[in-house]
């Protein structure tokens, strides 16, 4: 297996990435795309090269297979169905039932498929060809959405469950990727140096730019799930990128609010929220020259922080300049460290906080996108050292949130953990 020539469609590296980050593409044994993103100077310079062949004997992921009667049937992509009560599209991700789980009480696989390859380890189905790496990005082996080459049915008319037009069915022709932040499977994202997080930021920008050129994608959603309590199945510092063929329900709500606000006032709702939080001051928890982190005035979660760039007009991660990407790496590192210190167990050590970090970017084609603004929404359902917030009747049944604290108390605790102005 040889390296593919990397010809970006929309990604344009800035001065820092051009000099300090090298992107090397290849393909895994089943045909999935894979990218090394190296920040080690010896790999950036070309003095060293990564292993590009995948030694596993995997069938092509789109190959036909035999049914119970020995008949060959074509590959079946995942489908999605629309809920007639809400209008939401629900992907049916049956392949995820077979994914390896190496974390928590339900672990069923030895080793770590996201770790660098180690000869002799019990798990020999790892996704990383080389024995080391800096940051890697690759297509998910067990995706909830995927595009099948040459498949035209995804663009055709809706089908229906039981032939009833109440329940439209389409192929879930999205795209899912994994971003591994570091080769050390025992590392915490909060422990990574800012320089490594800078490479992760570049990975988010790179993939946002490139995936935006794919047909059929409406929204690109980088996110990170961290901690067994969140439901993480692989204990490794990593995140994911979901690329929806629709606009996700939460984004649809935010787009509607932003568009309506713009129609009424001519302003940008997210920009005005940021400026309002800066003026109020009390809920701003830290900031640097390019980013501001604050607890939103109507926070839902017992620990919740939003983060936004200072500069107006930024819709997506790939629109950040070099200074803003470095500022983001510093802010993200600070956020993770202070999140881990938020709950005091009495020993001053804090805890490994379970959290979700969700990047809200403007959708790709919706006419309301210009009224949106890039922001990160970070939250945890832990409400004390030994308590979590359960999404019970009101939250789960009616999506009517009841907060267990106040945004001002959350912000006050964050402000106790370090200075508000963190510089550069």
Automatic annotation (TrEMBL):
InterPro entries: GalP_UDPtransf1 (IPR001937), GalP_Utransf_C (IPR005850), GalP_Utransf_N (IPR005849), HIT-like_sf (IPR036265)
Catalytic residues in the record: 238
Domain Galactose-1-phosphate uridyl transferase C-terminal: 255-368
Domain Galactose-1-phosphate uridyl transferase N-terminal: residue ranges: 78-246
Keyword Zinc: yes
EC number annotated for this UniProt entry: 2.7.7.12
Protein name: Galactose-1-phosphate uridylyltransferase
